[in-house]
Amino acid sequence: MKRLDQLTFTRFIAILTVLFFHGGGGVYLQALAAVFPFRAILTSAETSVTYLYALSGFVMSLAYYRPREKFSISSYWTARFVRLYPLYIISFLMICYYYLDSVYRIKPQKILTNVFALQAWWPPYAQSFNYPSWSITVEFFFYAVFPFFAWWAYRQSTKKLIWVSLIIWTVSQTLHNALWIGYFPERENFLVYFPPFHLSSFILGAVGGIWFLREGRERETNPNVALLVFVGGVILTSVYVVILNSWSVNAPHGVQLMTGLLAPILTVVIAALAVDKTSFSAFLNHPALIALGEMSYALYILHIPVKWIYERALENSSLVNYRTIFDYTYLPLMIAVGALAHFYIDPPLRNGLKKILQRVSAPLLLLDFVIISASVYISFRLRFGSGREYDSYRSAILLTFWSAFILRTISSVVFNALNPSILHGSFQQLVRPVLVSISVSSAFIFGIIFSGYSLGWFDNFPRSVFAIDWALVFGLSLLTRFIFRYFRAYQPEPLPA
Question: What is the extent of the structural domain holding 374?
């Protein structure tokens, strides 16, 4: 269907409030606050998060709700992963650069939860590294749920879908607020960031999108009615935010808006703007405003890494008024970075990732991650036991683990060891890429650990460990591929010519 570009710019407005909330407004927020007296609205990041989740559900329905067409769940998940992950991992690497002098001391599990975008599922790590990126964990959860929700929704009436979504929202809010009263602030990271608490916002938005596809877009109404509903919803939300902001300071345990309290109202706002055909929507369809909306994800995921790195660069400079310079330049810089990332950096990364994923079996990749992690641990345990000698190698173990995690994965992709087509070829076609990829990566890992030993990072060089590790990884990797081959558990689609 035709894109509803009047919705696109609203993403930028929502993201802008998040930037203001995180201290990125500078003189521009001050100027707006001088003209617009309700500063709470300009920094209402919690409400904006709910709006973005509802909008995500609405857009997913517009793009993928097709009752008469086959829903390819693997293609859907691949498309959503490719849409978010490249800039997500860039933002993570930027934070690693910011903490370069101490990142090697960070627990591997904290790093891995961020690499795999799982941090919001593990409350102690929900705000680790690029702390706004917890929401990407939530988005991936939504994407995992949506295909099954869509299949169920195909057979339901619109009225039933609306009632079910409202019941889900009511149950979610009741449960969440009961937990909030009982466990805040001890369990704050769980209560604020745990993905299921946000699902009701997404479901309401998805149902709103289904309503639009089934009824809304064909409905003949007074042209001004939809606009009035939109304006009314925005005013109601704004009044609620302002009142709540002034009252919540004295409220017991505070009040949490982020987990979807205003989702029903915001879903109506989205649906009303989608239906609107007045000059207001025509104005929002201006190419410049659409461009700002399209780059809003880049703006969101990169704003903290850019802020931290830019702040430190100014602090370390010889400039006297570096804080004033930051307040004037950060927001324009961030918009420029967002535009550059979205239009020039993200597209080639997405295309490259798509091509890689065409040659990678996701189940094999996940199993290889398990094998790589287990092999390093087992190799050192077999060689040094569990006593003091093993403890003396902790630095070497960590460096070996991260070297193996990165290099073995890259090598497996480069040498086609993860390509599902090898599962159906000859014995030689199956063994050769696995043998080559593991041997090449082992040689690089050996070189890295020897370099660390030569530089004095650790006292001893555990030569025999690398032979054990090579044998374990090679044997287990072959075993998993033979099991897949024997049971035909993975049937790949034909590779493009």
Answer: 360-487
